[in-house]
Amino acid sequence: MPNTQYTQLAEPLWPLLNKFYRRHQSSMKAVRDAQLWVGKRDEIIAGLCLRPMAEGFWLTGLFVDPALRGQGIAAALMAQALLQIKAPVWLFCHPDLREFYERNGFTAGPLLPYALAERLARYNRSKPMIAMGLEPGK
């Protein structure tokens, strides 16, 4: 298996993550107020964003090149990005992804900050989404 590097993306390189998302017709976007993380081989093969939110972080934009899925890339990228996080982390996902996130330490139905609870309610009007959370040290 090729060597994959998991690193936080330096600010001057942030546009590369959006380019990666667009190349795969993903609606995900890298945002400026986040920590941006990537999995790289010769080029970006996966990305995620950690946005500061309330007293924790909102994990968004986790996406792996569809041709490379099933190799543990998403789990490894997430593990590296969360390694130094000492605050709660929340995410929204389709119910089909619940088991994946549970295998990676997340639990369904966390207490959400108000801003995220409102956003989840809006999202659920048009698509099924569940909230999951990860508490540091658990």
UniProtKB/TrEMBL annotation:
Organism ancestry: Bacteria, Pseudomonadati, Pseudomonadota, Gammaproteobacteria, Pseudomonadales
Keyword Endoplasmic reticulum: no
Protein's UniProt keywords contain Transferase: yes
GO MF entry, a single one: acyltransferase activity, transferring groups other than amino-acyl groups
Top-level taxon in the UniProt lineage: Bacteria
Keyword terms: Transferase
Domain N-acetyltransferase residue range list: 1-137
Organism: Pseudomonas frederiksbergensis
Signal peptide start and end residues: none
Protein name listed in UniProt: GNAT family N-acetyltransferase
